Give the backbone structure.
Amino acid sequence: MGKAGGTSPADPLELWWRPRILGLTLLTLTLSALGGLGATALGLPGGWIMGGSLAVTVAAMIGLPVRMPVRLRDIAFVLIGMSMGTTVASESLSLLASWPISLMGLVLEMVLIIALTGWMLVRVFKLDPGTAYLGSIPGHLSFIMGIASAGVGDARQIVIIQVIRLLMLTICVPIGAMFLPVEHFGSAAPTTTLSWGELLALAAACVALGLVFMRLGVPAAMVMGPMALATAAKLGGLYSGAMPEPLVIIAFVLTGALIGSRFAGITRQEFMQAALGGLIATAMTVGIVTVVSFGVSRLVDMPFGQIWIGLSPGALEGMGALGVALSFDAAFIAAHHMIRLLLLSFVIPLLVVLIRRRQGLSEGAATAATLPPAQG
């Protein structure tokens, strides 16, 4: 079976060192860096990610052959995971008593997002239930696309809706953060950075655990593995410094390129067919996140902005990087995104069963309606 829409922008079989692929990759990274530099110069929070995402997305939509090889994507994941772990505050453990409240908010939020946005896409945009509800799921894009490729929903429309959600959340969260308190909950930022020896040792251990997580089937393994190891090592006192700022900026540029490159191969006509539904679904998602986050912030003692990013269902690497860029607690944000992905691992199969049952009932009713009446 051929791949719809051509070669994937992150094809694991591609030979990334070939001159053409290498050139397209450098073009993509340059666009992301220039976009990030421009957004940062304008003083936008999380500018390196937001600007890079926008620049590469525009390039993809006007037909430029943007490219993000899978190996480079994995490097971005590892760097984001490390940066999330190295910015964990020791005080974060004392906040565990407050997290059950925000986790209950997370569960409520997920139910509302899937139910309301899925219903809207069915009733307003007349999408089939498979496309509507898989398009409304807040996370696990690769898992969702695998299910869609097996015949549940329209894969092209689902990926447009989902990627718009990822991109718009990456844009909306830092813009919203301009109007939110961005102070940390008391911990001073590290004044030292990791030495090259510490950095290389930490990176090697992070990659190793990421590969182990991948073999175990853990979602977003190359983000979660490095984040888990870097966090555990810091809380265990094995190191105290932060990642060098240039390396963090590189991680943000790679993340922006990755988000934008997901639009490669999608035609303008395909985009417009699903874009409006995706934008409305994203607006509904942001509204639900904001309301739930506000309610949680009334019950726990931590910044509204930190709760908002922790509950915002964007990509783990994107939201984690934004948390780092905005000086929020990475452990809180990462924990909520990991639990969201874990819950979705159980929710998605159940949802697919319900969708299949509903489609089966609809097809059965349609078939019965076309049969001639039984002879008495």
The CA atoms of residues 96 and 332 lie 9 Å apart.
